[in-house]
Design goal:
With 500 residues, the protein is an alpha+beta fold. It is built from 13 helices and 15 strands. Helices cover 34% and strands 22% of the residues. Strand 8 and strand 9 form a beta hairpin.
Length: 500
């Protein structure tokens, strides 16, 4: 086998925050002193520990002359960092379906991971300036830290930041050019399916980004991360498209992975991710996570330009009120269908702004944090703010298809309109006992297909059972056929009208 030079261009030095002009008097630059300080940290108070670590680490990483023991000082932060990571990972495992906002500890941990990665990349820059190759262990450690921060943010629907993606890409390019991207590095704290090479970490992060995680629930994304980490050898980067399922990737870092896949055009900055073997493994492996192959295929075969969309988006800038939660939507629809004014303790709608719309959907901006948090797949009711009193309500019911947020708790959601009639109903009869006093439901009737969907509490579902529902002017006996989807405790149930 001929070992040919990499075709990837030299990305130069890593772009990281510059060093401070002067040394801070509180910085700890002696390993023994730093070790003693770390041993005294209040680990019983994780947020406080994380705050103290990030403050001291930032002083070290930004110090104008940290000395020749800089690398050894950085390694001392690994032990307390691993303890904090274990706490956060346990939280993420225990919350698989809800996009709760990043809490104080998680915010601080992300900062800590990124700052420590910057420290290792500063060390790498010093080595590059001397004309030497950066050891694979230094590049791997920086990649692992950045990937850890990205995974935490991804599970909370945070957008992939341009700087974060660019650093991940540049680490991979450096390792490829040095032919060390496949060199296995033994981790001090291995976590099951974690890749042990720069190449493995990069391709895992890349393929998860290509699957558009903002359209899927955290538990599903977590299963993708675990499985993909064990199968990155099936992915490769090529100069020309190879196979039927090649995905373009902008190696300049200008476009994030998903935008590159949808809009990338052939040129010197474009390479191709060959995914045929990876997709084949997803299809043949009985342990492969659900939905991952379809998510990749949606990107590969998806529309790339606005002109190719099923219905073109039109920009909008209009204030709306948004309700979510089955009980809140049921109550508001009941008021609208019966023509009654709001009464009692009404649910407070969220102020939001519609930024675009199409025939089948729309996008909204709103300010978080939200309690309870929104979830991908759950129903919402959007009503436009009216400027005249007594005007007829304007709005629509929809499902959340995509959710993204940033460090300022600014949230963007993309929704798909629920087609047909949506009627508020109440479950009656024997099935009402299973609702545990939550017998509010919504009945969707798609006029074109004649299909009925019941949106109700998950514990109401019994396949083949017949239930009775009553609305303002309707009464149906419905036979439950199957579950379409479940979001938290709310289920979308395929039903048919039963003749009794």
């Amino acid at each position: 086998m001929v070992d040919t030079p990499s075709s990837l261009p030299d990305p130069g030095l890593f772009r990281i925050p510059p060093a401070a002009v002067a040394r801070h008097p509180a910085v700890l630059l002696a390993p023994r002193e730093l070790r003693t300080w770390i041993d005294s940290l209040p680990l019983a108070n994780p947020p406080r520990t994380a705050q103290m670590l990030i403050q001291q680490l930032r002083l070290l990483v930004r110090d104008p002359q940290p000395g020749n023991r800089f690398g050894a000082l950085l390694e001392l932060y690994d032990a307390p960092l691993d303890q904090l990571l274990q706490i956060v990972h346990e939280r993420l495992q225990g919350n698989p379906d809800s996009a709760v906002p990043l809490d104080q500890l998680e915010y601080q941990l992300v900062e800590l991971l990124v700052e420590l990665a910057h420290g290792h990349l500063r060390l790498a820059n010093d080595i590059l300036r001397s004309g030497k190759e950066v050891p694979a262990a230094v590049l791997f450690r920086a990649m692992s830290l950045l990937d850890g921060a990205t995974n935490i943010e991804r599970l909370h629907y945070h957008r992939l930041t341009p700087d974060g993606w660019r650093l991940l890409l540049n680490i991979f390019v450096h390792a490829e050019r040095q032919r060390t991207s496949r060199q296995a590095i033994r981790s001090a704290s291995p976590q099951g399916s974690e890749p042990d090479t720069v190449r493995g970490l990069f391709f895992r992060s890349l393929v998860i980004s290509l699957c558009d995680p903002h359209r899927h629930r955290p538990g599903q994304i977590l299963s993708w991360v675990h499985w993909a980490g064990q199968h990155t050898d099936a992915l490769q980067l090529t100069v020309l498209p190879q196979g039927a399922y090649a995905i373009p990737l902008d190696i300049s870092g200008t476009l994030p992975p998903l935008s590159s896949a949808r809009r990338g055009k052939p040129g010197p900055d474009i390479r191709y991710v060959a995914t045929d073997a990876f997709l084949q493994q997803l299809q043949s492996d009985p342990m492969a996570p659900k939905g991952m192959r379809q998510a990749l295929m949606d990107v590969i075969k998806g529309r790339k330009t606005p002109e190719q969309r099923q219905s073109q988006r039109q920009p909008r800038n209009h204030p709306y009120r948004l309700l979510y939660g089955l009980r809140a939507i049921h109550r508001r629809l009941s008021e609208l269908t019966q023509g009654t004014a709001p009464h009692g303790q009404a649910f407070s709608p969220l102020a939001c702004r519609q930024v675009n719309q199409s025939r089948s959907g729309a996008a909204f901006h709103l300010q978080g944090p939200l309690n309870p948090p929104l979830n991908v797949g759950e129903p919402i009711l959007a009503e436009a703010e009216t400027t005249t009193s007594g005007g007829a309500p304007v709005g629509f019911a929809a499902r959340v298809l995509r959710l993204a947020s940033n460090e300022h708790n600014e949230i963007e959601i993309g929704v798909e309109k629920l087609q047909g009639r949506l009627v508020p109903v109440a479950i009656s009869g024997a099935a009402a006992d299973r609702g545990r006093f939550d017998n509010h439901a919504l009945l969707q009737h798609a006029m074109d297909s004649g299909r009925f969907t019941l949106i109700a509490a998950r514990n109401l579902f019994r396949e083949g059972d017949t239930i009775s529902v009553e609305g303002p002017s309707t009464r149906y006996n419905l036979r439950m056929l199957g579950l379409t989807s479940v979001v938290q405790s709310t289920a979308f149930i395929d039903v048919e009208v039963a003749e009794l």
